[in-house]
Amino acid sequence: MRSSNKPPQVDVVEQLLKTSPAIKEPVHAVHRLYNYRKALSTKPFTARGKKLIRCPKCLLGVQFCTCEHRKFLSTNISVMLIMYDDEVLKPTNSGRLIADLIPNTSAYLWSRTEPNPDMLAQLADPQYQVFLVFPEQYIGSQQAIYNQIDASVLAPDKKPLLVFLDGSWRQAIKMFRKSPYLHTLSVLSIAPSQLATYALRKGSHEFQLGTAEVAALALEAAGERENGAALTAWFDLFVESSLLGRNRRQKEIIKPIELYINNFNDAVKKAASRS
């Protein structure tokens, strides 16, 4: 009998991936971009927890995979993610959470010298009214700035397209400053009062939020409060699952993961009842 040359742990990984709920879930734009960017790499991307066996879609530890709980929301909003180089490869990236819930999400790698032509075409598509979600203090006087999107802002024959620059804060500023095509877009800037309310709700004093958290506030500012709440609940489930996978939770403060799942399911039901 011919023996296999594969080490035992490889068989374990393959079996876990075969039984992962992610296998049954539909692929979205960030999944495709992840596979594309991974194919470009000359060496494996390494992150903290590199020994953890991860789901190929949500990138959480397979025992904490959330893919089977993912649900698309009913929304009139489209989203574009412009992602900084290897951001899409990071297990901690929260931009993919937006694509998990918002059906009409596109995702592109940012390039200073060669912007993706499909991305530029979508930004110029007349069916959309495009809003760059970005802090107003970095915006020049030539760009229109809004704190909310309502009937007085949105043209009746247009669909809102929200654009997010996905990377670290320093990278997002770099992407904006070095991308002239972004300098002509209208801007949705989250109002300071909305940020303060969110921070109070979350018990946080940090105002530099993850991309998914900003997107939740943007949905709220665009009149889809319940969808924003569902995205926040999905983000909370992601954070807790990620921390559990890294053994970063003290036993006395661990809440049952089912609590986060139920909170998300309840938020989705509430959003569906308002759509």
Describe this structure in words.
It is an enzyme of class 2 (transferase). Residues 51-247 form the DTW domain. One of its GO terms (biological process) is tRNA processing. This protein is α/β, with parallel strands linked by helices and 275 residues long. It has one domain (16-274). Helices cover 39% and strands 11% of the residues. The chain has a six-stranded parallel β-sheet with strand order 2-1-5-3-6-4, with helices on both faces. Helix 3 links the parallel strand 1 (78-83) and strand 2. Helix 7 (211-221) packs antiparallel against helix 8 (225-245) and helix 8 packs antiparallel against helix 9. The radius of gyration is 20 Å and the shape is globular. The model is unreliable at 1-14 (pLDDT under 50).
Topology (SSEs and partners):
Elements: H1 8-18, H2 29-40, E1 78-83, H3 95-101, E2 105-109, H4 117-124, E3 128-133, E4 145-146, E5 159-166, H5 169-177, E6 186-188, H6 192-202, H7 211-221, H8 225-245, H9 257-274
Parallel strand pairs: 1-2, 1-5, 3-5, 3-6, 4-6
Helix pairs in contact: 7-8, 8-9
Number of strands: 6
Task: Write down the secondary-structure element order.
Answer: HHEHEHEEEHEHHHH
Q: Which class do the helix and strand fractions yield? A: alpha/beta
Number of helices: 9
Rg value: 20 Å
Quick structural gist:
By secondary structure, this protein is α/β, with parallel strands linked by helices.
